[in-house]
Design goal:
Helix 2 packs across helix 4 and helix 7 crosses helix 8. The chain has a 7-stranded mixed beta sheet with strand order 3-4-7-6-5-8-9, sandwiched between helices. The protein is about 35% helix and about 25% strand. By secondary structure, the chain is an alpha+beta fold. It has 10 helices and 11 strands. A hairpin with an 8-residue loop joins strand 3 and strand 4. It has 3 domains: about 80 residues, no CATH class; about 150 residues, Nucleotidyltransferase, domain 5 (2-Layer Sandwich), CATH 3.30.420; about 45 residues, no CATH class. This is MULE transposase domain-containing protein.
């Protein structure tokens, strides 16, 4: 990179307001002239193309510019096109400076316009902000075929730290996203069981549109398990395969003795288990007859 003794200065000003349209301001001064920088700003023709094609994906607009304006495309990048496209479309999805209010207004707008969104009415919980919505077309087309409902959550999913709950169904061998819920604790007035009631409201909404659910799947989250049992006690609930395997692996890796084994309790749960099989497992080393110097480990089970 060429350098010049231009006695210049670079000033960078960063705004602490996340809602500010100009988060970073950069100012470059030169006291002595040198070879000018290449202007990579978007000209009016490129801006016009972006505005006219703003309803398409940014990648499609970039492909169009490469084909129709190859010379101008040499001095700009795809990231510039994406940023200009994002700024242009911000007016369509940023309906309020408050992110929560903006999201709710956007969901209501999409619902009123007949898009694939319907708001799930969840209870107002003290000390919490919550937003829940379902995918209308998926539920309309596949709701009657969904037999399994899986739920899981992620923590601090976005910049504001909202927790995201996803509700996924299974139909025709496909995993189908059915609904989502965002929730966040806002102050100390939060009440016990609030999140469980919110999850229950989503399950209640989905049960109406998915009347043939036979099984609930989740991780080992007691609030999810309790919500399922309260809303649909007749439907079986179990850990999903991945969480079950992970829990067993974690349990086996712990250096703790197992709980006492009760053969009568085991037989009551699974009748094929023999009541006389009550192992007291012990490990010891035994020498082989053919080679006394060789030792083998033997597992000994004692019938009690």
């Amino acid at each position: 990179m060429d350098r010049f003794s231009c006695k210049g200065s670079l000033q960078v000003k960063v705004s602490d307001n996340i809602d500010d349209n100009t988060l970073i301001q950069i100012k470059l001064n030169h006291l002595k002239p040198h070879i000018p920088y290449c202007d990579i700003s978007l000209d009016n023709d490129i801006k016009t193309i972006i505005h006219e094609m703003a309803h398409l994906q940014a990648g499609k607009i970039w492909e169009h510019i490469l084909k129709t304006c190859p010379e101008k495309a040499k001095n700009i990048t795809e990231k510039q096109i994406h940023f200009a496209w994002m700024v242009k479309n911000k007016e369509n999805w940023r309906l309020d400076d408050d992110q929560v209010k903006s999201a709710l207004r956007l969901l209501r707008k999409l619902e009123e316009e007949g898009h694939d969104v319907e708001i799930i009415e969840v209870p107002t919980e003290s000390g919490r902000h919550s937003i829940a919505f379902a995918l209308r077309d998926v539920l309309k087309n596949y709701g009657g075929e969904v037999c399994e409902l899986t739920m899981d959550s992620t923590w601090k999913n976005n910049a504001l730290g909202y927790e995201l709950y996803a509700f996924v169904g299974e139909a025709d061998g496909m995993a189908l996203p059915l609904a989502f819920m965002f929730t966040l604790i806002t102050d100390d007035s939060v009440t016990e069981g609030g999140k469980e009631r919110l999850v229950g409201a989503c399950i209640r909404h989905l049960r109406v549109l998915c009347p043939n659910i036979l099984l609930f799947l989740s991780d080992k989250d007691l609030l999810e398990i309790n919500a399922c049992q309260k809303e649909a006690p007749e439907i079986s609930h179990q850990l999903c395969s991945w969480h079950a395997v992970r829990y067993i692996e974690q349990r086996l890796s712990e250096n703790h003795p197992p709980r006492p084994y009760d053969p009568q309790k085991a037989n009551h749960t699974f009748s094929f288990i023999d009541l006389t099989w009550a192992p007291g497992v012990a490990l010891f080393e035994e020498t082989t007859k053919s080679n006394p110097s060789q030792k083998v480990t033997v597992i000994y089970s004692e019938i009690k």
